[in-house]
Amino acid sequence: MNIGQAARRSGLSTKMIRYYESIGLLKPATRSDSGYRLYQAEDLHSLAFIKRSRDLGFSLDEVGKLLTLWQDRGRASADVKALAMQHIDELNRRIEELVSLRDTLGDLVAHCQGDDRPDCPILKDLANGAGCCH
User: What is the pTM of this model?
Assistant: First the structure.
């Protein structure tokens, strides 16, 4: 199948497939006599694996490590679990950061009158936090 068909079947764009190939996540596609990329069922499995990994928030580096583990039939599942647990720790850190941002912005919104007056604690906080123009 060509790259367009592979894109439709994998749920990825042709641009992403080319990118994943260029950075080595996906092995280079075989080429037709006219130079078009040709993908096999094995390539679709790899693309599905990459897409699902990315959907779960794994970085490209982590996806590469997971692909290597997936392709190594002699791997230890402990290695996969350790990588997934590290990812969970990073997700938890990001969640805490987002909760803090939400709470801070919520406080600013609660203190804004939201009326016709120009005084706005949200803008005041943004300006004070800029740190460049005191």
Answer: 0.80
Name the band, by pLDDT with cuts 50, 70 and 90, for residue 131: low
Q: Which residues pair with 54 in a beta bridge?
A: none
First-to-final CA distance of the chain: 60
Q: Over the range 29-48, which residues count as b (16 or more CB within 10 Å of their CB) and which as e?
A: beeeeeeebebeeebeebbe
**pLDDT tens digits along 67-126:** 999 999 999 999 999 999 999 999 999 999 999 999 999 999 999 988 888 889 999 999
Say if CB 122 and CB 112 are below 8 A apart. Answer: yes
Looking up tokens 């679990």 gives 81
Contact 9, 44 (CB under 8 A): yes
pLDDT of residue 129: 79
Q: CB–CB of 44/30 below 8 Å?
A: no
Contact 17, 7 (CB under 8 A): yes
Q: Where are the alpha helices (DSSP H) in 1-134?
A: 3-10, 14-22, 41-55, 60-71, 77-111, 121-129
